Structures are given as C-alpha cells and as structure tokens.
C-alpha cells in the first residue's frame, strides 16, 4: 500500500518536473527565436558628469519588444537563457547594435563611451576576446576605448585568474571595465584587489536609501573612498532626485546615472534628449544642501 502511494507520488512529481523542464525549454526557444526574429531592442541611459555638466556616455539596456506582450525588461527573460549559449548570441547582438549606434552618434559627441553589460557565461568563453576583436573590426569608426564592459562580481567568482586575463587582454585593446552593482556581492574587497577594474559602479540600493539610512550613506562614502585610493573612477546608479545628486557631489562622486537624469530611452530619442538636457537644477540643489 505504502509502496503504491510512494510510486504514485513519485510519478506525480516526475510529470510535474517534466512539465517544468518542457516549459523552461519552450521559454528558452522563445527567447532564442526573439533574437532571430529581430525583436530585441536596446534602450540607452545617459551617464552624467555633474561637475562638468556633461553627458559622458550611455549604457545600453536590453529590451524584448514582444509582438503580443509589448516591451519586456531583461530580468524577465535573460535569466531563462543565462546558462545556455543563447546568452552569447544575445550578447554579441547587443555589442554590434551598441557599436552601430555609437558610430551614428559620433558626430554629436566623439567622446561618448558606450557601456554594455556582459553576462558571466559569455564573458568567460575561451574565444571571448577573439570574437570581440572581430566585432570591433566591423565598426572601424568606433575605437575600442569608446567601449566599456560592465560585469557583475559573480562573473568573476568562478575563476578569478581567468577573468583577470580576459580583462587584461581587452584593456590592451583599449576597452575599459566597470564593476556593476558594486558592494552587493560578498567578496567586493578581494575582487577589487585582484581584478584590473577601471570603474566602480555603486549599486542603486545604497544610493536609494543613503539620505534616510546612515549605514547606506557610509557605504556609498566608503566605496567612493575605495575608488579614490585604488585610483579608479566611481559612478553612482539609481540617482533619482536632485538631493541624491547633491549628496553624491559632496561625497566626491561626480558621475551619476538614474531616473533623475533620464530613464533608459529608445535610440532615436537620445540626440534630442541630450540637446535639451540642462544640468542647472543639480547645481542648485547641491548649493542649498546643509553640510553632512
Ligand atoms: P544594471 O546593469 O545594474 O542596470 C541598471 C538597472 O536599473 C536597469 O534596469 C535600469 O533601467 C535601472 N535603473 C536605472 N536608473 C534607475 C533609477 O534611478 N531607479 C531605478 N529604480 N532603477 C533604475 P534594466 O534595464 O531592467 O536592467 C536590469 C539588469 O539587466 C541590468 O542591471 C543588467 O544587469 C541586466 N542587463 C540589461 N541589459 C543587458 C544586456 O544587454 N546584457 C546582459 N547580459 N545583461 C543586461
Ligand atoms: Mg549595468
Ligand atoms: Mg547596476
Ligand atoms: Mg543590476
């Protein structure tokens, strides 16, 4: 009796799992097809140097323009494919598309840097650098120093010396690296010591709460100090208000990105947005903020 129940339960579980596997497989196929059907698009979010009042570049952020469901954000479909080579196809598509756009924006500002998020699996492929070189060669008007790659701490955990070697090979070409969501991982310090990063990107969760939570303020301040002592640039993400901007400027972080400057926007809105952007309000807020 007990055996039968056990077997039934087992069978039940099995078919449930089958179902899950099938669903996952279908969803992965769906995402793979999205690349082929040309349904992926990049939005761009500006990065601002508050002190200079200048836009220094754009981060490319992936969206899926689904024929039925509309615009879908990356967190709703990248996790489905991050452990398969579909993430590599997507990553290479993103690189090409971002470089193509940057090429068309060069006349507006030849100094802009385009930032591209790279998934761990893509980044750690043995042929990553070779293929990246080939992609860059397709866009001869865009020199490699106009490309920045954003990687997450978790990208490096598996094999830090391999990751370091890839970073150094890319840097030899002129490409720079930002450590995204910095401060959220468990090993930020050793990571920093062993990886040749160019930029630390303070995670938005700290920025969001720094005006109400003393600990987050100290964390933001510490990352800025860390960047300074390692000779790295530092940028804050998730800057939503002028008060955020003002506080960051006081703490010595001039580079900011967030809804307070601009939300990610379609490529064809970028140039007109930049032309109409005015940084004056940030300066006023900075001047009126009481001392820390
Ligand atoms: P991320 O690289 O840390 O990007 C920042 C995310 O925060 C973006 O979400 C952006 O739209 C959002 N954001 C920017 N400013 C603000 C703000 O002021 N407030 C709030 N609440 N949010 C803000 P998004 O576009 O949904 O991207 C989420 C994550 O997906 C990215 O985090 C990145 O890790 C990943 N991702 C995006 N595009 C790509 C891509 O092309 N390839 C890969 N591998 N990953 C990507
Ligand atoms: Mg990023
Ligand atoms: Mg981030
Ligand atoms: Mg993030």
TrEMBL record:
Name the source's superkingdom.
Answer: Bacteria
- According to the UniProt entry, the coiled-coil residues are none
The EAL domain covers 24-278
Q: What is this protein called?
A: EAL domain-containing protein
Q: Which residues of the full protein are shown?
A: 525 to 816 of 833
């Amino acid at each position: 009796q007990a055996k039968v129940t056990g077997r039934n339960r087992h069978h039940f579980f099995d078919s449930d799992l089958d179902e899950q596997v099938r669903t996952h497989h279908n969803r992965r196929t769906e995402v793979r097809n999205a690349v082929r059907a040309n349904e992926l698009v990049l939005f761009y979010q500006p990065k601002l140097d508050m002190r200079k009042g200048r836009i220094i570049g754009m981060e490319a952020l992936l969206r899926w323009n689904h024929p039925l469901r509309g615009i879908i954000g990356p967190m709703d479909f990248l996790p489905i494919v991050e452990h398969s080579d579909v993430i590599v196809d997507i990553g290479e598509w993103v690189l090409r598309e971002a470089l193509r756009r940057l090429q068309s924006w060069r006349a507006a500002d030849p100094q802009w840097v385009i930032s591209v998020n790279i998934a761990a699996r893509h980044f750690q492929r043995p042929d990553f650098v070779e293929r990246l070189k080939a992609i860059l060669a397709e866009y001869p008007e865009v020199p490699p120093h106009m490309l920045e790659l954003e990687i997450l701490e978790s990208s490096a955990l598996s094999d830090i010396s391999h990751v370091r070697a890839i970073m150094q090979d890319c840097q030899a070409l002129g490409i720079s690296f930002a450590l995204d969501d910095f401060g959220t991982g468990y090993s930020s310090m050793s990571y920093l010591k062993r990886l040749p990063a160019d930029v630390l990107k303070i995670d938005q969760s700290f920025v969001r709460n720094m005006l109400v939570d003393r600990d987050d303020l100290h964390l933001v301040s510490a990352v800025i100090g860390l960047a300074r002592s390692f000779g790295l640039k530092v940028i804050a993400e998730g800057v939503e208000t002028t008060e955020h901007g003002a506080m960051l400027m006081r703490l010595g972080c001039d580079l900011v990105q967030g809804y307070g400057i601009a939300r990610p926007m379609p490529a064809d809105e970028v140039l007109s947005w930049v032309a109409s952007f005015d940084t004056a309000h940030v300066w006023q807020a900075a001047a009126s903020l009481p001392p820390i």
